Each structure stands twice: as structure tokens, then as C-alpha cells.
Fold this protein.
Amino acid sequence: MIPRNRSSGRKNAENGSSGWNMNYLSWALLGMVGYSFTTILVKLATRSGQFSSFVVLAIACIITMVSVIVIIYMRGDLQQLEPRDLVSSSALFAYATGIALTVAVSSLFKALSLGPASAVVPIYGMFIVGASILGFVFLHEPITVRKIAGIGFAVVSIVLLSR
């Protein structure tokens, strides 16, 4: 369990036990692999028509919820929470995240149940461009020629992949 100081010098909540200390690139790659399999598995689960995209999403969310509860329990994250934390600005952003993620994943699952993964996934993948632009606007991240070129290439690749 990771004790965290509640003062302004408080450790980042993402620092966990040694088993969780992969760097951000490792986590990003693992997430990419997971999402890659998710899209194919949704397509396989819905293609017979036995399960709707929302039934598949419900099953996936239950598994995700149980898994995450086990993780936060093992990390000791729940011991650090106080009632006032649930109305903090961080909590409000977490609630907004839940709403945005619900819209995103529900839409992805529905689109995958209706159309070809080879078209749906690249279009859905445009969230990379959207998130990059939002990062510039709301997080004041630096805009560079390299980043603008990357966004441009991403748009071109999505157009080529989705046609």
C-alpha cells in the first residue's frame, strides 16, 4: 500500500507499488494493444446478433469495474479518500470523464456492431487529433511544427484507412 501525504507536496496518485511502475510509453503501448483487441472482440461478439453492442458493453464494463476496484483496493487508494474529495474539482473532472467515456465507448461499440472495423476504428482513432487539439487549447501545451505535421499526417492516414 502506498501512503500519500495529503499536503501540497502529496505524491502523485498514479505512483503505485513496484509492480505498477512502468513508464508512460509502456502503459500507452499496453493500452493500444488492449484497445486493438477490444475492437476486434466487440465485432466478434456482436456479429451473430445474439448480443447487442450495449449488452457487450455492459459485460465489458462489469469486468472493468471489478478489475479496477481490485486494483484500487490493492494499491490502497480508497484509504486515502475523504468525503470532501468527492466534491473536489478533481472529482468533477472524474465525473465528466465518466460521461465522456460512456459516450465514446458506447458509440464505438455501436459503430462496430453496424459497420466494418476497418472503417470504424480509423475514424474513431481521430480522437488522437481531437485530444491533441484540446491539449493545445485547454492545457496550453506547446504547439510545434512537428506536432502540427503529426496531426496532419494522422488526418491523412485516417482518410486513407477509412475509405
About this structure: The helical segments are 24-46, 53-75, 89-114, 117-124, 127-138, 145-162. The chain is about 65% helix and 0% strand. The longest helix spans residues 89-114.
